[in-house]
Amino acid sequence: MASRRRWRVAAVGWALVVLVSGVLPTQGVVHAVAEGRDDLLTTAGHFAAYALLGFLLVVALGGWEARARDLTVVLGLAAGLGGVIELVQGPLPYRDMQLLDFLVDVAGAAVGLAAFSAAAGARRRRSRRG
Q: Three-state SS for 26?
């Protein structure tokens, strides 16, 4: 149970990082780091952030024995967070609300869930052998 609690703390912590970074004025930093590849960097950042979020959420909520229902719930939670952040960004003068960002968020979360499924399957196979 202590292990599950750590996963939950990690998932909530990462969700807060995603939320805060989604509403802060980060365009200047991205522009300075991206060297003209702002769109590529932000797309990759969205994808990676939500892949990690999906992975952390499914372990936190369903454990390593998560079922298909857990995966569906997590995908909905990640999509909901991505959608809410995009809606909040709409009226902010220093942010842009973009459908593409939302779609990349959902795709990233789906890849995180696929990575979880692969890792959980490997854990089950190892436990059967050992």
A: coil
| pLDDT exceeds cutoff 70 at 59 | yes
- What's the number of CA atoms in the CB half-sphere (13 Å) around residue 23? 13
Q: What share of the chain is helix, strand, coil (3-state, %, to 5)?
A: 85, 0, 15
- Please state, in angstroms and rounded to a whole number, the distance separating the CA atoms of residues 39 and 31: 9
Q: Which tokens hold the place of 128?
A: 């059967």
The three-state secondary structure class of 90 is coil
50 and 105 in contact (C-beta within 8 Å)? yes
Task: Kindly report, residue by residue over 3-49, the tens digit of the pLDDT.
Answer: 889 999 999 999 999 999 999 998 888 888 888 888 999 999 999 99
Q: Angle between the 27-34 and 38-62 helix axes, to the nearest 10 degrees?
A: 110
Q: Decide if 94 contacts 27 (C-beta within 8 A).
A: yes
pLDDT for residue 1: 64
